[in-house]
Design the sequence.
């Protein structure tokens, strides 16, 4: 166990509500500086750890919710992949609106982490007396610093909010008004924090191999067509599929359970008619795809998390067999069962494909 004074933590400040400051307009807020956030949380000075701070901006401005896109995930993922070897843990201060899918994206991009990456933020600016920001930030730093010391190692991307620690690939924002605005969709937190104590549910932790290198696999820009089967109108679904010529893949979600899709369902017939050669991801764990060519996507039932995993699968895989392997497997704790040894399995598959061509030579 490292002594507290030996533990190095990096806080990446990207912006968000936690750092906002009032404007001259009544009730108005504007992005605030990293230095102002530190000033508003004097308890940071009492921490026994070595805490470094760094601003992370895109085009010389802090991150807004509208900036949470593939380009951001590429730059932020690369930054964390580079810095993680220098620190025991990294805390990412982020806006709440897109914290869940952003943590999910970084979870997939960063494989084989050697330390924790903890997202946090707040619903109320730290400058305000009733802010939840100080507690959330201090909790996140404690998780990053105690991981592998006072508590078991949590070498993955997580979200620390309102005294709960969620896996990045589980997290969503379900409320715009409550301070406990985050949940794990259908999953319980992997840890809770109360009165300075961190209680980890060790049964929910995965054992990550220590002999692997940290790998960064950036998400790429992909044109994915989402179709919410139950809540979209049939006219909307048909219109979308009629215009699906240029999409990279189709994602079917919000699927019916009482009367599952079959070969004669309208959406199935329309895909057959308008998009017969497209990759189709079937985001449901309770029913089976009506077409064996479709790929079942193992993921929590949240639209943003579904889209993030589909994007990662398309970015990482080189062919449909690899897509099926990645989509149907548990990669970062988003599904059930053991974690896939992703890189090893992909290398094996690619070697197996090369053998016939080498034999012919």
Sequence:
């Amino acid at each position: 166990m490292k002594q507290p004074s030996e533990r190095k933590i990096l806080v990446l400040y990207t912006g968000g509500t936690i750092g906002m400051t009032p404007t001259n307009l009544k009730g108005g807020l504007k992005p605030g500086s990293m230095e102002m956030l530190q000033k508003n949380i004097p308890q940071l000075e009492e921490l026994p750890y070595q805490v470094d701070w760094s601003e992370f901006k895109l085009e010389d401005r802090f991150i807004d919710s509208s900036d949470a896109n593939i380009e951001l995930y590429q730059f932020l993922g690369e930054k964390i992949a580079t810095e993680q070897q220098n620190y025991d843990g990294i805390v990412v201060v982020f806006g709440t609106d897109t914290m869940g899918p952003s943590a999910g994206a970084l979870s997939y991009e960063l494989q084989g982490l050697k330390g924790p990456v903890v997202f946090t933020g707040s619903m109320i600016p730290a400058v305000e007396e009733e802010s939840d920001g100080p507690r959330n930030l201090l909790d996140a730093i404690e998780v990053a610093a105690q991981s592998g010391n006072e508590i078991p190692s949590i070498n993955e991307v997580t979200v620390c909010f309102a005294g709960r620690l969620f896996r990045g690939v589980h997290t969503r924002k379900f409320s715009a008004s409550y301070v406990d605005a985050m949940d794990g969709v259908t999953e319980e937190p992997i840890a809770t924090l109360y009165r300075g104590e961190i209680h980890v549910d060790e049964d929910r932790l995965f054992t990550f191999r220590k002999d692997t290198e940290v790998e960064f696999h950036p998400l790429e820009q992909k044109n994915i067509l989402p179709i919410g089967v139950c809540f979209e109108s049939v006219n909307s679904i048909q219109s979308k599929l009629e215009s699906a010529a240029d999409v990279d893949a189709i994602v079917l979600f919000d699927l019916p359970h009482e009367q599952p899709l079959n070969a004669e369902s309208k959406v199935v017939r329309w895909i057959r008619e308008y998009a017969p050669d497209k990759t189709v991801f079937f985001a449901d764990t309770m029913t089976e795809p009506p077409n064996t060519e479709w790929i079942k996507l193992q993921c929590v039932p949240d639209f943003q998390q579904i889209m993030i995993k589909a994007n990662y699968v398309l970015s990482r895989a080189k062919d449909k067999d690899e897509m099926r392997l990645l989509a149907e497997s548990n990669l970062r704790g988003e599904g059930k069962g053991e974690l896939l040894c992703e890189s090893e399995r992909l290398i094996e598959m690619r070697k197996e494909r090369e053998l016939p061509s080498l034999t012919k030579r």
